[in-house]
Amino acid sequence: MDRIGSDEIHSPIGAVCLRFQDELNQYMSYDIGGECLADEVFAQMLVSKGYSNIVWDPYTCKSHKCLIERKNNKGYCKDCFDLQGREKGRWIFDDGGLDFGIDQVLGTKRSDSTIHIGLDIDGGTGTFAARMKERNVTIITSTLDLDSSFSHFIASRGLTPIHLSISQRLQFFENTLDIVHSMEFIGN
Question: Per its UniProt entry, which superkingdom is the organism in (predicted)?
């Protein structure tokens, strides 16, 4: 066996958290909301066992507090990590334009149908998925970690991120998704 365990095959989703409790506890030993320590070898060992590592090194902000405080900076999505700001009321109400409230959208389904699972393309910090989760709908949120660790932030909200661009082939069978949502990325 090599020193990081890459010669073993592990289940890709979830099971590793149960099988490798000690490693998970060691990796999660930082202060919640504090700065994450960089340990490349340990992170790669976790990835080889099936964990999705949290790599903060390439980003200016290395904590949730920093992400929230950057709301006063200029630029795209600088305030989207502040869940008590702009994100707090997002997708709750119909704005009279092209933005519909989630309840209005869910109300358009046939009475004999259900909406259980969907995809949010370019889901920002996962607020659409969070609103749908409140209504018992599971949304997988696609994201690119541009300038911030969006995937980690979404996962920390108890939601399901998937790191991919719109040019990648989506691995969903036909008729699997009940709803697909897209933000600015495709339109702009």
Answer: Eukaryota
